[in-house]
Specification:
With 178 residues, the chain is mainly β. The chain has helices at residues 5-14, 99-102, and strands at residues 18-21, 33-36, 40-44, 60-64, 70-72, 78-88, 91-97, 106-107, 120-129, 133-135, 140-148. It has a four-stranded antiparallel β-sheet.
């Protein structure tokens, strides 16, 4: 079951099971809530001939999106984050790009649109584009929606919990050396 926009609004205004900060009732849709893009992007800082290694932390460099916008380039992965902090208890949060953004050829997640019950923090967006596209900070870029969870559950306690913005891959923390 997916929550209606009216139910998302009711729960967010109560501030217990669904927390969205800052919350603006104008961004509630029929069955989702629009989240905005923060003004910081990260890109992996790779030199010529270097590659990403899943077992190693790769340095990133920060890009500040100016108020007058920044042009995304095809072939580059940009890590961004939502301006809003979210916290979810008893529901599974999911993230999708807005169709108006997708129609420009911009994707806001490669594979990580699925959230975990109990997640709290800012959503990291895996942004890539098919064409050069100018983006702006505070733009409504994606939408969060919620599935009701059935049965007992353990809330998320993973490495991205309680983050404070853009999070590069931390898969290297999962590596078990023999």
């Amino acid at each position: 079951m997916i929550l209606s926009g009216l139910e998302i609004k009711r729960l967010a205004e109560m501030g217990k099971e669904i927390i969205i900060t800052p919350f603006d009732g104008e961004r509630v849709g029929p069955n989702s809530y629009d989240l905005r893009l923060n003004n910081i992007l990260q890109v992996y800082d790779l030199k010529e001939g270097e590659f990403l290694d899943m077992h190693t932390q790769t340095p990133t460099k920060e890009i500040i999106i100016p108020e007058d916008g920044f042009v995304l380039q095809p072939g580059q992965l940009y890590l961004g984050s939502t301006l809003e902090y979210t916290e979810t208890h008893g529901y599974v949060p999911m993230l999708e790009g807005r169709s108006s953004i997708g129609r420009l050829g911009v994707s806001i997640h490669v594979t990580a649109g699925f959230g975990d019950v109990g997640f709290s923090g800012y959503w990291t967006l895996e942004i890539h584009t098919l064409h050069p596209v100018k983006i702006y900070p505070k733009e409504r870029i994606c939408q969060i929606y919620y599935h009701k969870i059935e049965g007992n559950y353990e809330p998320y306690k993973g490495k991205y919990q309680k983050n404070s913005g853009v999070q590069a891959s931390q898969i290297y923390k999962d590596v078990k050396y023999v």
